[in-house]
Amino acid sequence: MAKQLEAGDVRAVARVISWLENRDPAGAAVLAHCAPSPKGAFVIGVTGYPGTGKSTLIDQLIMAYRDLGAKVGVLAVDVSSPVTGGALLGDRIRMQRHADDPQVFIRSMATRGQKGGLAGATRQAAQVLEAAGYGVILIETVGVGQNELDVMHVVHTVIAVVAPGLGDDIQAMKAGLLEIADIVVVNKGDRDGADTTLRDLREWCKTVIRTVAVKGEGIAELIAVIAEHERWRDLDRPQLHKRRGPSLDRRSRAGSSSG
User: Which domains does the chain have, with CATH numbers?
Assistant: First the structure.
């Protein structure tokens, strides 16, 4: 199974992630047999309040990274179904146009009661995608509010997505999402109040980008800013490690088994 995973077999990827979600020891065993990736994956977290357009933004990022020739994996964390316990699959449905692209893998993961915006097996699922050769991994948090801070321990770059008209909510976000964000995206930037929101955020955040994801506006600029942050991360890896703890860097994940 490890060999199938390293060969990029989609069925193997899906099966191993399912094992990890179900706490089947076979999942961890497969990961233990995978050789470290020489290049590794660039892992991007997308978080923010519901209704800000996170899934639409990710849909555009998938297309942009594919245009650059990257193999893209997406882990979209959804609220668990009260009936089956599985993910509600809302994010996967919104990204359906990429379903026929063999270089894109999209998986919805249920929180199953996990707090912090991620599913329990999210970190390991990202390791599975990395082992299968996905160069860019996008992780979308469940979208329930400002306490979604676990993503900062799993990804290399955190994008917080907001929308115009937040008003006093920005003050509340300063103690949560904005504090961990490397990049803040004001999506739906063609709406009334966007200029005010941008101005308020730029007083607090170093990097703030305006996008209109449904039109593809601002995506090229966002890709460039993400790339710049990746270059900074490579130059300042010790400081990032101190700030966030072990991430998906293969050199620091040996023995890691928690989500």
Answer: 36-250 (3.40.50.300)
